[in-house]
Each structure stands twice: as structure tokens, then as C-alpha cells.
TrEMBL record:
Gene Ontology molecular function terms on file: 5-(carboxyamino)imidazole ribonucleotide mutase activity; lyase activity
UniProt cross-references to Gene3D superfamilies, sorted A to Z: 3.40.50.1970
UniProt keyword terms in alphabetical order: Isomerase, Lyase, Purine biosynthesis
InterPro entries on file: PurE_ClassI, PurE_dom, PurE_prokaryotes
Source organism of this protein record: Alistipes shahii
General function of this protein: Catalyzes the conversion of N5-carboxyaminoimidazole ribonucleotide (N5-CAIR) to 4-carboxy-5-aminoimidazole ribonucleotide (CAIR).
Pathway: Purine metabolism; IMP biosynthesis via de novo pathway; 5-amino-1-(5-phospho-D-ribosyl)imidazole-4-carboxylate from 5-amino-1-(5-phospho-D-ribosyl)imidazole (N5-CAIR route): step 2/2
Annotated PurE domain residues: 1-150
Protein name per its UniProtKB record: N5-carboxyaminoimidazole ribonucleotide mutase
GO term, biological process aspect, one: 'de novo' IMP biosynthetic process
Enzyme Commission designation: 5.4.99.18
Catalytic activity: 5-carboxyamino-1-(5-phospho-D-ribosyl)imidazole + H(+) = 5-amino-1-(5-phospho-D-ribosyl)imidazole-4-carboxylate
Residue sites binding substrate per the record: S9, D12, R39
Length: 155
């Protein structure tokens, strides 16, 4: 199964590249593209409605400002959607966060921290690892290394 990584603008890629790098590190198959809720609404509908049949298991959607992309995608697919609020210039990403996190009951978006693209990828990996023992082993190793690195840290 693939992860779909989408973002509202090319300008979001500086942040969303961290999700892509993490997926690559885990060897998870993914596709990435710009899909804008406001500038390409028809593409958004097509992307969300065909995602499952294209073999996507989890969608990571990043957007900033009036960040309607993750919620609108979630409204049109039963797949898990992880929303990444991208830090905006005007309001430091609080606008992005509030646009994404306050979904109505029944249409969930799992929202990360502002610019939390790495964790979005890790959530996607966790979901896919439920049905993929090799990926689950990689995730265990990642967490064990992270713990070991902290324990041996010298300051
Ligand atoms: C949002 O507007 C995008 O997700 C981006 O974070 C923000 C600014 O987009 P650009 O004007 O840089 O294309 O739709």
C-alpha cells in the first residue's frame, strides 16, 4: 500500500519534504503532488475519490493559512487522513492548525503539530505496519534507536 502525500502549494514542500524523507527512510511507497482546495477543487475531489482504488492506504495532507485541504479530502474518502498545519507567514500557523484540527464529529483528520510532517509520516508508517510485519520491525528499530540515542547523549 502507498501513502499519498499532498500539499496545497509548492511552497509547502519545504515542510512536507520531511514527511517524504521519513517515508523514504522506511522504504514506504508513496506518491506526492500539489492539490489545492481552493485553486484546484476539481482535482481535490478526483484525488480523494479515487485514492483508495489507486492503492493508497493513508493520505498525508499539508496546507497553510485557510487550510481546508485535509478536511475536504477526509470528507470524500474513508481512508485515514493525517493533516499537517504548515506554518504561515501572517499568523505563524495558528490559522493552519485551527483550520485543520476542528473537524466535525464523523469526519476525522488526525492533526499533527504545526510543521509536524515527520510525525505525519510516522503515523502513516504505524498504520501501514499493522498489516506489514517487516515495516513493524523497522518502526520498532527506529524507536529503539531514538531511545538509545537519548540515553547516550552527552551535554
Ligand atoms: C495554502 O496557502 C497553501 O497550502 C500554502 O501553505 C499557502 C500559501 O500558498 P502560496 O501562495 O505560497 O502558493 O493554500
Amino acid at each position: 500500500m502507498k501513502v499519498g502525500v499532498i500539499m496545497g502549494s509548492v511552497s509547502d514542500y519545504e515542510v512536507m519534504a520531511e514527511a517524504v524523507a521519513m517515508l523514504e527512510a522506511f522504504g514506504v511507497d508513496f506518491e506526492k503532488r500539489v492539490v489545492s482546495a481552493h485553486r484546484t477543487p476539481d482535482l481535490l475531489c478526483e484525488y480523494a475519490k479515487t485514492a483508495r482504488e489507486r492503492g493508497i492506504g493513508v493520505i498525508i495532507a499539508g496546507a497553510g493559512g485557510a487550510a481546508h485541504l485535509p478536511g475536504m479530502v477526509a470528507s470524500m474518502t474513508p481512508l485515514p487522513v493525517v493533516g499537517v498545519p504548515v506554518k504561515s507567514r501572517a499568523l505563524n500557523g495558528l490559522d493552519s492548525l485551527l483550520s485543520i484540527v476542528q473537524m466535525p464529529a464523523g469526519v476525522p483528520v488526525a492533526t499533527t503539530a504545526i510543521n509536524g510532517a515527520k510525525n505525519a509520516a510516522l503515523i502513516a508508517v504505524s498504520i501501514l505496519a499493522l498489516q506489514d510485519a517487516a515495516l513493524a520491525a523497522k518502526l520498532d528499530a527506529f524507536r529503539a534507536k531514538q531511545t538509545a540515542d537519548v540515553l547516550k547523549a552527552e551535554i
